[in-house]
Amino acid sequence: MRQWRVGTFSMGAMLLVFGICLLWGAVNGYSIVSYVLQWWPLTLVLLGVEVILYTYLRKTERLTYDLMSIALIFVLGVGSFGLYALQSVGVVEAAQRALTQSVYEVELDGETLPNDAAIRKVVIDNPGDTRLTIHNVKDTPGKIAGHLQVRAASRGEAELQRGFDIATIAEQGEQLFIHVKKPETVPAFGPSGESESVELFIPSTWSVEVQNGYRPLSIRTLDPQGNWTVQSDGEVDVTLAGQGAVAVEARTRGERNLGGNVQWTVEPLQTKKPRNGTADGRADAAPSAPSGVPGELAPASPATPTPPDVDRIDGELRGHYHRGTGGVSMFIESRMIRVTDSSGNPA
Predict the structure, then answer these.
(1) DSSP 183-200
(2) Angle at Cα 293 formed by Cα 288 and Cα 295, nearest 5°?
(3) Degrees to nearest 5, angle at CA 100 with 98 and 106
(4) Do residues 156 and 223 lie in contact, with contact meaning Cβ atoms separated by under 8 Å?
(5) How many CB atoms lie within 10 A of CB 337?
(6) Which of 57, 91, 123, 139 has minimal CB crowding within 10 Å?
């Protein structure tokens, strides 16, 4: 005799409804995750309706459950209550946000740099996950601007990050200190900054010192009048615009890490170390010999000067590029350096 397993109808109806919803969402390009998470208690309603209908329609038969029916009901019940528990503690909502979030690009509110005539140098610290581009500007005040890629549930939620504080700026005497901040990450799958790009516009009369992290650094100069010192753990890409004289010294590992359209003059990076003896390269004095008179020592013989060794630092080198004579200097230390002279006549 054919036996009806309680729970089979509920499982079949649930699979049918969910399957139709998923197909409709795939065809029309809609996400039904939020609807599934909202209407999941219907599985319990279907199971209850099935039990009631079976009892009402099969009054003469005793309601029985076999192992398969118990397993189906167990799966439905435990799954439903487990989902309810996760929803109660916020896990379901967090997962829903993670599945429905997208990445939006937000233009951050910029800031004008102090226009104090006493400022002669700017010190820039960019230790975090930020792509930094530095420009020289003439006859206009300096400023800082940026874009932030935000993972959020909607464009409106992403725009709330426009007020993200790009950097801290402090003026001290003739120096201006700029510390670029890392994008904020909000826990529990809230709106968070994925990556940030910042543009700094620096007056060409200022000297510039840059400490950069592992993100690529771009420098766009237009006849700078102040010297530059750049140290970066990431790549450095320099574009020299204008016609002013500039001398670039690059320090890196391996000639293949020097690029661009300029002709580099390359020399190994060397350091002087004493071969033995004292730190100034002189050998230790020879021990004095007895003079033959008890209690006296012969005069110490003069130390023989020894020229210091010249040791190469393995793999490291200096690259030089000069445009014109005199002018400003630019020192760059990085693992990869590219210099492009856009004046049309790179030497």
Answers:
(1) PP--TTT--EEEEEEEEE
(2) 70
(3) 90
(4) no
(5) 23
(6) 139
Spatial contact of 175 and 114, defined as CB atoms under 8 Å apart: no
Total-model pTM: 0.62
Please say whether the beta carbons of 316 and 341 come within 8 A: no
What residue segments make up the domains of the chain, in order of their start? 8-100, 102-215, 224-274+306-347
Local confidence pLDDT in tens for the 347 residues of the chain: 555 566 667 767 777 777 787 777 777 766 666 666 667 677 777 777 877 777 777 666 665 555 665 676 667 667 766 766 676 677 767 776 777 778 888 888 888 999 888 899 999 999 877 899 999 888 888 999 988 888 777 888 888 878 778 899 999 999 999 999 887 654 444 444 456 789 999 999 999 999 999 989 999 988 889 999 999 999 999 999 888 899 999 999 888 899 999 999 998 876 544 444 444 444 444 444 343 434 333 343 343 333 333 344 456 889 999 998 888 999 999 999 999 998 765 55
